[in-house]
Amino acid sequence: METNGLKVNTSGSDTSLAAARVLLAILFLVSGVLKVIGFDGMVRYATIKHLPFPTLSILVAMAIEIGCGSLLAVGYKTRWAALVLIIFTLPTSFIFHPFWSVDAKQFDDQLYNFLKNISIIGGLLYVVVVGPGAVSLDARLKNG
């Protein structure tokens, strides 16, 4: 394939897209499962962070992380799942990692976690734009 005069090797791109989706999904799946395991603690933390309806907020977060994380991993409704995860991750970053308003001891950790989330959003945006690739349920259902 040639792009802007440069030859690009795309022989492994579909497998790479699948791997990238799974690697992105792992974060959300693990986070969602940890919320299930530590549900009461997460509700207390959501209360401290002044989330409205903390119990419902954590239930919704679990559903989004596990549900959309699973869809992303298998490549089904991939673009929509990635978009929902972007919409979920952006405000979460501002609510739970406010590096600009913490003391010096917490600054580095909060900045790192905020930037990590912004980078994850970048990866998810790439999935929204490029799509799931051929190694996905979306491609299989489209062709099958």
UniProtKB/TrEMBL annotation:
Database matches in Pfam families: DoxX
Source taxon at top rank: Bacteria
Lineage, highest ranks first: Bacteria, Pseudomonadati, Pseudomonadota, Betaproteobacteria, Burkholderiales
Family the UniProt entry places it in: Belongs to the DoxX family.
One GO cellular component, as annotated: plasma membrane
Residues that span the membrane, as ranges: 20-39, 51-74, 80-102, 114-135
Membrane topology, from the record: Multi-pass membrane protein
Species whose genome carries this gene: Paraburkholderia megapolitana
Name under which the protein is recorded: Putative oxidoreductase
Record keywords, A-Z: Cell membrane, Membrane, Transmembrane, Transmembrane helix
Compartments it resides in: Cell membrane
